[in-house]
Amino acid sequence: MMFHTPIFILGFLPVCLAGFFTLGHVAGETGALGWLIGASLVFYGWWNPAFLPLLIGSAVVNHTIAWKIRHSAMPRTWMAAGVAANLAVLGWFKYADFLLHIVAPAAPPLGITLPLAISFFTFQQIMVLVDTARAAAPAPDADLDPVSWPGLSRPSTTYGPGYGEVVDGRTKSGHDTIGTARARANAGHAFLPYAAFVSFFPHLIAGPIVRGAEIIPQLTAPDFVRPRDKNLAEGLLIFLLGLGKKCVLADMFGSFADTGFGAAARGLDLTFFEAWYATLSYALQIYFDFSGYSDMAIGLARMMNVRFPLNFDSPYQAADISDFWRRWHITLGAFLRDYLYIPLGGSRAGRLRQAANLMATMLLAGLWHGAGWNFIIWGGLHGLFLVVHREYRRLFPPLPALLGQALTLTAVILAWVPFRAASLSQTLIVFRGLFGLTGIALPQMIVSAFPPLAAIAEPVAVMPSLGDARTLSFPELSACLLLGWFIVLALPNIHRMTERSRHWALTASFALSAQAVFFAPHVAPFLYFRF
């Protein structure tokens, strides 16, 4: 089931909320959590009920291992066994065919169906096991270098503006800080709130990647099951704005990107503007798609009195590549930092080892997104960007702000090409077009209106790999791209908007969102459902 379908909006969501708060009033926290788990399993099993035993079994086994960690004399042994078991299951379902193809290219595929959300619920439970082991057998903090890895400054909370002021270990919103929450969660918890955390439908399918220590204390708060008008109103508003991002903006730019990358997949050359328009469109599609999903997840959780961490903070406005990773998929960046980069040694063993740790972390980040060389190349490029940035910062003063932002944005956009492309040959076709190696063409009408363009561009009747290949596709797509990039580069994200600005944004997008949800010829899935 997807957030942007009529069955979810008009059926599942109102029934889920009504049952949750009714049972909370009648049967208390236990009844409400039981209802929430049942509703989340229905939500997950809607696509393929065959994988429900995997999700349930994963929760049962990991909760048992967490209990063993807390009560065993060898907590780190149990942790290692639990992490290995989780990675083995993830590896079988997600990477077995990929590894088989590497070892034996001629072998037939195993035909393994990838379970929905396995990357997300596996990583979240790994974090629970590691945090539980660290609480049972604490180790000294690593030597952290804020330049070497994005986000190492560790803000006191990641719940967004207005919720960051900390007093006596609790935020302005009344929630624990991450550190305080971790201590409470690791003190021990029952299976019911743990199962609700693992299966909680707002984050189950595509994140954000939340820690048990952030969520479980909220699921056991005394007034958790009482409806709050403010949370319901704010949550619905954030959900609808995220819905607009996905259905109005992401799907529109997705259709533009599919045209160009689809032509490259068929082996057709792309001219300069066809390649750039496809690439710029994909950069906007993946931003609006995933940040829209994250906003919808935050809004849905808020309706049920749960606050999720912020997952996007205007990443295309980043001043450098490290700043980009503090803003893009924030919860994944935090996971990579705390559970991979630092355990590998972080910045404690010299510059060469530090560079190797960065590269290894980002290569694995790419592999997490999918079993394919295109994702590994994307991760390797970002690892290289981070290493180069670290060395530049060590040797030279920072670049001027606008130049740094432009360089960062260019690097990020170019790295999206292998991420989106299905093969290396398709990647090379797009890059040849981006660098003008296959020529520059413009519609005849445009060249006739601006004759000096004839000096640089060949006039053509239509551009077959841009838009719907009409003459007017070029100016229409140009206007759409200008609007999209203006939104991501000049405007604040919805979590930094004033309440009045949010209402204006909702007014502008609501009719288009409704049309897309109820009258679109097909439902475009979220991109991160694939990962």
What does this structure look like?
With 531 residues, this protein is mostly helical. 65% of the residues lie in helices and 2% in strands. The chain contains 19 helices and four strands. It has helices at 6-45, 52-71, 75-103, 118-136, 178-185, 191-199, 201-204, 212-219, 229-265, 272-303, 321-327, 330-344, 350-369, 373-395, 401-420, 424-434, 444-449, 473-490, 499-519; strands at 166-167, 170-171, 441-443, 458-460. The strands form two sheets. Strands 1-2 form a two-stranded antiparallel ribbon. Strands 3-4 form a two-stranded parallel sheet. Helix 17 links the parallel strand 3 and strand 4. Helix 2 packs parallel to helix 4 (118-136). The two termini are 16 Å apart. The relative contact order is 0.11.
Strand order of the largest sheet: 1-2
Mean pLDDT, all residues: 87
Between the first and last Cα atoms, what is the distance in angstroms? Answer: 16 Å
Please estimate the helix content: 55-70%
Spans with pLDDT under 50 lasting ≥5 residues? 140-147, 151-188
Q: What is the number of E strands?
A: 4
SSE topology sketch:
Elements: H1 6-45, H2 52-71, H3 75-103, H4 118-136, E1 166-167, E2 170-171, H5 178-185, H6 191-199, H7 201-204, H8 212-219, H9 229-265, H10 272-303, H11 321-327, H12 330-344, H13 350-369, H14 373-395, H15 401-420, H16 424-434, E3 441-443, H17 444-449, E4 458-460, H18 473-490, H19 499-519
Parallel strand pairs: 3-4
Antiparallel strand pairs: 1-2
Helix pairs in contact: 1-6, 2-3, 2-4, 2-6, 3-4, 5-8, 6-8, 9-10, 9-16, 9-19, 10-15, 10-16, 10-18, 12-13, 13-14, 14-15, 15-16
